[in-house]
Amino acid sequence: MLFHLFYPWHEHFILFNVFRYVTFRTGGAIFTAFLLSLILGPYLLRKLEQYQIRQQIRPDGPQSHLQKANTPTMGGILILTTIVLSTLLWADLRNRLVWLCVFSLLAMGGLGFGDDLLKLIRRDSRGLPAAYKLLGQALVGLLVGGYLFFWPTGPHATKLAIPFFKMWLPDLGWFYIPFVMLVIVSTSNAVNLADGLDGLAIGLFLMASSTYTLMAYLAGHAAVSRYLQILFVRGASEVTVFCGAMVGASIGFLWFNAYPAQVFMGDVGSLGLGAALGTVAVAIKSELLLV
To answer: Which of 12, 25, 128, 189 is least surrounded by CB atoms within 10 angstroms?
Structure first.
């Protein structure tokens, strides 16, 4: 939004020229997401406490986890909100990869929201049946994979970049779609499994999203990608702004999730963040770095 608002005036006001630089807007997205988290976080915590939206602990888990039963959950609403707002504020909204990442974040976050809601209604740790949840995750992966297959970002859309083997680019063809499904389902479940301990899931996600912020910038920079012999993806540099928003939101949420945790992200956060990270990975052709 700010890019479209201010950059057209750069010929009249030279200061507005900074909005053309992805690095500047990524920094803005990081700071904005972090600041929004600190501002909106206390309000969300009060609402979660007011409506008694609390963590449901599995009875067969470690006894030490039972003390977390009264900790508010569904804090992922804060993460998703700050990511989306920061992205809309700083990204070039004409970039379709940005919208693809936002779609994946919100679609899988919506699935997680439904799962969390069922847990609260039933007052136990069972949410959506595993088969239904897996089906929903696979559907999001299918939509993302199908979009990248039928509307490719370049000649290497269905090719697999293998680290340390820069010249070997196997073409997956139609198998690229189920491969994308596997990546997104796996990453969303990976973050989901890590949630529940103070600072664990968001700390790991912060490191991963920081890495992919750099990778998105490199993949979207023609000269740098050529020098490093990595696949150049047109438009990938704008994904850097989205990744920056994830980094800022993660730092902000960690403020409330670090020991002793005041809130957990819940499935609405873990599934959404995992899917967004997986979508970033496939969008910039760095899928295997997730392993």
So the answer is: 12
